[in-house]
Every structure is written in structure tokens, then in C-alpha cells.
């Protein structure tokens, strides 16, 4: 019988569940093995993976330790816990379990978004970053853990077939974090530079410099999705020591202080305060506008931003950060060229220099 009804203590050899007859003397008409319930086969592993993954994410976010443990070990653990089965069933295909693992990963990112630990755009980036480790962990759970189980079977530990492997997977994010602390090189200051030749004379270009937060034209989609929306600015920078407060939606703000001002040559500033602005990702240090005259009507403007990154592994996050930096610089350079923006900026600053 494949309906799963227990055929013990019946008055007649007919299954009350499905109505089929069986012969107690013929084992081919019934089964001594418990029925295989597919959802019970993967459901416990999926719940364990989701719960453990979310708990580790909360711990890393609270302690602002966003590195190997969070971005590599957590999704690897989720995939491995879903894929690992002490007694694999032939009826459950690899594809089905793989889908379950990916669904768990999506649910994990959704929980982070609901808990306001990640926004929509950050959630999309997390899905892209989590995808490969989740698949790697899944295949380890299916194949690699069987090798470990075979080794553990040679020991005398009563729970050798599954407990050490499950505990090892649950502790993996913490182990990865400790490995990062011991092995990863110190964080280095990152520099993003973007230069562009503007069809403006040196002093004309100088009179049109503008901060990102002051630009009125529409922002690129990447900046709309990935950065807070500028609200307004308070104060002006005209000489060394001047400060400007850049306010964003959601109570985010940056305070910039001029450190080097030479009209027509350079404007450099420090970021002396950063509140609710990508605090878990980067710490902004300083920036600069450099003006290099090429001809009477052409000036090369170089924008520089320096920051201390907080996200690891750097091989993943550095390209993302630099892409955002260059996109922001290009937006500012565009703001120095577009007439409507130039007019507004020149009126507010040019007459007082």
C-alpha cells in the first residue's frame, strides 16, 4: 500500500483509507516501510537553515561585522543544511532540493528587508552575492557531507552519522568570521577618481562646481536605488574652514569642511560627520575637485573621493563601491555642464567668491 495507512488490527484485509484489498500472507500487497512524505523530508532542514541563517545575520548586523561570515558562510550554510540528508531518497530529485535551497535564501533576504536591515536595492545585491555560495553549500550538503559521514562512521560516537556535520554547518559562519580576523589583511583606504574634459574655461568651470546634494536634474537609476535621496543643503563652502551640511531623506546627513581652496585650481574638503548614511558600508574621509586647464575653453576636472570600506570580502564589494563612486562623480560633472543647474549654482556661489 502506498496511502500510508497502518494495516494493523483490522477485521478484514481491506484498507479503510484507499479501499484496496491486501493479503497478509503476500508481502507484495502491502509494505513494511513507512511511507515517504516528501515535504517532511525537506521541511525540517529548510526551517533549520532559515532560522540559523537569520540568527547569524542578526548577530553580524548588530555587531557591524559584515564580512566573510555573513556574505559567504551564511548562504553556504543555508544551502548545505537544505542539501544534507543522512539517508537520501531516490524519489527526491536534486532539482527539487535546489529550488528549496534557493527559496530559503530568498526568504532569508526578505526577512532582512522586513527587519529593516537591508533596503530593496541592498536586498537585490544580497541575492546576487548569496546565489553562488548557496549553490555551493547545497552541493556540499548532497555530496561532500556524505564523505564526512563515511569518515564519521568509523568512530564510536552514537550520533556520528549526522550530529557533527549539522553542528559544524551551524557554526560555520562564526568560524569564517574568526578566520577573517586572523587571515584577512587590514582594511585599506579606498580612492575613487573620475576625470572628464569639460568645454569650459578654468574659471568658468570653477564657478560651476557643485556638490552632489545641490544638483537639481534627475539622478541616474543606480543612485536612486542605492543611495539616500538628497533633501537640501545648509551653509556654503567658499574658503578654508567653511562647512556645509548635506541633508538627505531619512535623517541622513553629511557635514563637509573645506580644507584647501585655491580658485581655479582645487577645492578639497573633509567629511567631519556622517550620520545614517551608509554607516554599515563605508566611512567617508574626504574629497576634492581638481581643475587643470587644457586650453582657454577646455578644463580637465578630476573628482576624488576617499573612504574606509567596511564590507568584506573586498573582491566582491570593491567593484560595487567603485561603480557607485564613478556614477556619482559623473552625475556631479554633468551638473557642472547642464545650463539650468549651472545657473542655479552660479547664482548661489559665484557672486560671493
Jot down its keywords:
single chain, alpha+beta, seven-stranded antiparallel sheet, 19% strand
Would you kindly provide a written description of the structure presented here, covering whatever features stand out?
- The protein is of the alpha+beta class.
- The protein has nine helices and seven strands.
- The protein has helices at residues 38-62, 68-83, 94-114, 120-152, 163-183, 202-207, 221-226, 314-337, 339-349; strands at residues 190-198, 230-234, 243-248, 253-262, 266-275, 282-295, 298-309.
- It has a seven-stranded antiparallel β-sheet.
- α3 (94-114) crosses α4.
- The relative contact order is 0.11.
- The model is unreliable at 341-353 (pLDDT under 50).
Described by strand count, sense and barrel closure, the largest sheet is:
7 strands, antiparallel
Alpha carbon gap, first and last residue: 91 Å
Mean pLDDT: 84
Strand order of the largest sheet: 1-7-6-5-4-3-2
**Helical percent range?**
40-55%
